[in-house]
Amino acid sequence: MTASSVARRSSAYVPDDAEDAGGDGQRLPPARFAFDARTWKEVAHLLLNLPEVLIGFVYVTLWLYAGVLLSVTVVGLPLLAAGLMGSRALGRMERRRARALLGVRIDEPSPLSRQRRGRGFFAWMWAALKDPVGWRSTLYCFARLPWGILTFTVTLCALFVAWPVLGHLARAMTHVDRAMVRGLLSPSSELERRIAELEEDRGMVVDTAAADLRRIERDLHDGAQARLVALAMGLGLAKEKLLEDPEAAARMVDEAHGEVKLALQELRDLARGIHPAILTDRGLGPALSALAARCTVPVTTEVDLPVRPAPAIEGIAYFTVSELLQNISKHSAARTARVGVRRTRDRLVLQVWDDGRGGAGTAKGSGLAGLAERLGSVDGVFVVDSPAGGPTTVTAELPWRDRA
What are the residues facing 348 on neighbouring strands? Predict the structure, then answer.
């Protein structure tokens, strides 16, 4: 058998010393592996398995051992949480490698709850310890050690010894890799995470509602209720003096009339704080214009909404703008402000701008942090851009829901 017949029968390789062309006197082309780009990518993936599994296994073993050993101390749980975040990063790198070399298209899991990250160290630690994505990435790194060593060894040997079957071996072994990536690194448990986030958000909504009820009770007790009690006492004294000193009784009735007006105004303000009638009757545009008129800083409003959103979303948008304008009045030292509202696809976007001193932020305990939590409870987004010296731009997004 001549070298040219060997070249025709082999689908993968032409020997280096095959120079006979079979009678035409021409030299054969240079020796090469006849694999396509996909096969070469799969071979590269299998050869990279060894360094990948060694790094992942050593990392997971070290932080798990140290975290469990130190779990009785104050640094154990934070170490475990940090280790899980590192496993998340390794899983992200593996998904990228699988996309580049194996053609596996896997969506990235959602970030570890931006709302939880903003609630302090212990909230972050607890969220990280319960993170299913981090634990599955840890399992992936830990379980792949024998498989990575096996695939590297088999691929390396086949590359130099059994090259005719290398393509088939690479295809079979990378199918297993694809199954591992899909099974352990895909966001398959995002539903459980979403349920956990909704449970936490529900608790926050309940706490917010309770705080609002306490505020309403306090405002009634210290404001309108106290004024009405004083009014009743004043009218009682006026009644007693009506026959004895009509002029004094008339003055007392006049004072009581003034107290009635003040009590009515306080009740109107309280009702507006619960849900303003203008918002119910006319929508966000007129309601925000009324807010702007009461602000101590000149405010221009621009509302571009062809239809009204659901009442719940409308109410959240109104009170968000209301609190932002109050902050501008109290803290910004601004000369002008703007409010813009528009719909972008399936989101209601609010933007409040002022030319004040800046420096605002969502640090824990601030009013803006409370707004961020409230919007987060309904899948909203809250972003503050406020450099020192200003200006300040606050952007809030809410999911759009049509009115029933």
Answer: 343, 398
In this predicted structure, what is the pLDDT of residue 18? Answer: 41
In order of 116, 165, 352, the CA distances from 274 in angstroms are 28, 75, 22
Comparing 90-104, 276-290, 336-350, the range with the smallest average pLDDT is 276-290
Burial class of 206 by CB neighbour count within 10 A (0 to 12, 13 to 18, 19+): exposed
pLDDT over 90 (residue 47): yes
Residue 158 domain flag: yes
The residue that leads in pLDDT, 259 or 349, is: 349
pLDDT, residue 114, reads 46
Among candidate residues 178, 125, 119, 126, the one with its CA nearest the CA of residue 151: 178
SS3 assignment, position 338 = strand
Are residues 70 and 8 both part of a single domain? no
Sign of CA dihedral 72, 74, 76, 80: positive
pLDDT band for 191, please (50, 70, 90 cuts): low
Residues 306, 308, 310, 316, CA torsion sign: positive
Shared domain check, 314 and 254: no
**261 located within any domain:** yes
At 88, the amino acid letter reads R
Residue 42 shares a structural domain with residue 184:
yes
Peptide bond into 391 cis (omega under 30): yes
Q: How far apart are CA 128 and CA 123, in angstroms?
A: 9
Structural domain containing residue 67: 37-188
pLDDT digits (tens, 9 = 90+) for 326-366: 889 888 888 999 999 999 888 999 999 999 888 888 776 56
Q: List, in order, residues 6 or more apart from 316 with CB less than 8 Å away.
A: 374, 375, 378, 380, 398
Whether residue 235 is contained in a domain is answered as yes
Q: Which of 274, 304, 329 is the endpoint of a domain?
A: 274
**Distance, CA of 127 to chain centre:** 13
Segment (H or E) for 382: strand 381-385
Judge whether 404 lies within some domain: no
Indicate if the pLDDT at residue 97 is higher than 80. Answer: yes
How many domains does the chain fold into? 4
| Nearest of 242, 322, 246 to residue 279 by alpha carbon | 322
Pairing of strands 337-344, 299-304: parallel
Residues 43 and 183 in one domain: yes
